[in-house]
Amino acid sequence: MKQLRYGGLLLLTILLAACGEETYLNRVQEEGKLVVVTRNAPTTYYVDRDGKTGFEYDLASAFADDLGVELELVVSNNPAEILSLLEKGKVDLAAAGLTRTEQRENRYRFSNSYQQVTQQVVCRRGGAYPEEPEDLVGLSIEVPAETTYVEELKRLQDEIPGLSWEVNPENDTEHLLEQVWRRKLDCTVGDSNIVAINQRYMPELSVRFDLGEPQQLAWAMPVEAGGLQREVNNWLEEYDEAGLLRQLTNKYYGFIEVFDYVDTRAFQRKVRRVLPKYQEMFQAAGKRYDIDWTLLAAQAYQESHWNRYARSPTGVRGIMMLTLITAREVGINSRLDPQQSIMGGAKYLSNLRGRLPDEITEPDRTWIALGAYNVGMGHIYDARKLAREQGVNPNLWHEFREVLPLLAQKKYYKDLKYGYARGLEPVRYVRRIRNYHDMLLQALKVE
User: Considering the chain, what is the average pLDDT of its residues?
Assistant: First the structure.
């Protein structure tokens, strides 16, 4: 009898807990808003010329839309404050590039992972050069408070007693990377996605070695938000299966190549010294053909490094590297005249964009048109046919680009109208333009 009573109490407790968890989700839906805390950083949330954007922002917006509620943002760049807001119930969810760890899972609920990162030790070129954890002894190191970097360093300290560091309760990873760049610190620790983006703005930052095993990024929720956690996980699974997570990842990270210090430094110098000569020309061409002038400038840099006299062995010439046939097609007389070349290149890109099927939407329409600028529209049509045969969506660049390299394989190109093409080239071409474009926007601080 006593066992039945205890069993009934246990069942009641479980039911009440489950009811409480569902009440949390119901409250969010009834109030019509999801309060999300995030960081103002390139990998999470920021405001550009088109408004609010960022990987975490887009992902949280998509979930809020699916839930049928308004997204309300709370911005904090302090990891400790972000977790405190969760603990105090001030926010419903943290979408801030948080790593899911066993220690944190004792205090919060976490979603399934949506991205994998690795912690990296970052120093400055010409400065400290640790090659393994033991070499960190004696260096000035700071990491943000309440981060997994602290957890990993504490673990290492058990093996390396002389290892020490400072915990910065005020600032985030991006700020400490800048401190390293400014030679105020020897080194810091950052997640690989944060480091990859910031290296392109501060090219002297150098990854010395990886710290620990790869870790999973996930959203964090209060402990009582079990119903919300289940809803998030179900939605994330559907979002991933629909290919939307991969599409979003490509939007923010797909253009980042292996970091090239020399190329990045050269680009930054030319932004200061060369671009001002041509900026008004890019702006005029962009306005005339409805193309972002900074994208045109990035494309021109990929083509010629803004060298008006550039010439390739195949005969393409000028700042936009036009062929003689294309120059005649767009009505320019001198490919070496930068104003004519820029206007002609913009017109040609606009024409290519207009020749693509209506079902291709932006930004994929522009990426595919840029691919055609490099390899020719005929090969793009061939690759679209091949994509359909391969069960690949030819209207999404991040899927379509996987098919383009097949144009160099005989078993595929032998049955195509335009035949062989170096299909990997347009993939690299678009990736590099997107990379230069992103760096240019940061350098110009375009908002």
Answer: 89
Considering the domain architecture, whether residues 316 and 289 belong to the same structural domain is answered as yes
* Domain housing 428: 264-444
Alpha-carbon distance 309 to 319, whole Å?
A: 7
Instruction: Report which of 154, 172, 274 is spatially closest to residue 211, judged by C-alpha positions.
Output: 154
Contact 412, 406 (CB under 8 A): yes
302 and 341 together in one domain: yes
What's the predicted TM-score (pTM) here?
0.71
- Alpha-carbon distance 165 to 74, whole Å? 30
Q: List Cβ neighbours of 171 (8 Å cut-off, separation of 6 or more).
A: 77, 78, 144
Q: In the listed set 253, 276, 296, which residue is the last one of a domain according to the structure?
A: 253
In this structure, the answer to whether residues 287 and 242 fall within a common structural domain is no
Rounded Cα–Cα distance for residues 215 and 195 (Å): 15
Nearest to 72 by CA among 95, 54, 88: 95
Shared-domain flag, residues 239 and 325: no
Q: What residues act catalytically? A: 303
What are 63-95's pLDDT values in tens digits? 999 999 999 999 888 888 899 999 998 999 999
With CA atoms as reference, report the closest residue to 415 among 377, 442, 440, 389.
389
